[in-house]
Amino acid sequence: MNGFEWIDARSVDEASKLLGDGAIAKAGGIDLLDLMKEGIVRPTRVINLRSIAGMDDIRIEADGTLRLGALATLARIADDAQVLAQFGALASAAVHAATPQVRNVATIGG
Predict the structure, then answer these.
(1) 76-105 pLDDT, tens per residue?
(2) Could you count the other beta carbons within 10 Å of the beta carbon of residue 10?
(3) How many Å apart are CA 97 and CA 7, to the nearest integer?
(4) Which residue in 83, 61, 3 sits closest to 36, CA to CA?
(5) Distance CA 53, CA 55 (A)
(6) Is 26 exposed, middle or buried (0-12, 13-18, 19+ CB in 10 A)?
(7) Contact 99, 64 (CB under 8 A)
(8) How far apart are CA 56 and CA 24, in angstroms?
(9) For 13-101, where are the E strands, in sequence order?
(10) Which tens digits make up the pLDDT trace of 10-58?
């Protein structure tokens, strides 16, 4: 694996400003780390999105719209009572997407 700079972003605005010029965003990181180990992806900078507060929110708005933060894990989506009640197909897809170990860390924005 090549060397790279690691940055814990504190806001979406900061993360977006840091992207570009060989940088890549990391949400859950399952696929990204594998790609980096294999030398398929060689970023010069990795922007950690997990350090941004609120990026893992799951909520249903007053108008019924489901809002999923990019860092919401598949496990949280599959287990969320409101998602199960109102968006059953999504909960079912999340629970069948991977093994339990992967679902606990894989994010929807991953």
Answers:
(1) 999 999 999 999 999 999 999 989 998 998
(2) 11
(3) 29
(4) 3
(5) 6
(6) buried
(7) no
(8) 19
(9) 23-26, 45-48, 58-60, 66-68
(10) 999 999 999 988 999 988 777 888 899 999 999 999 999 989 999 999 9
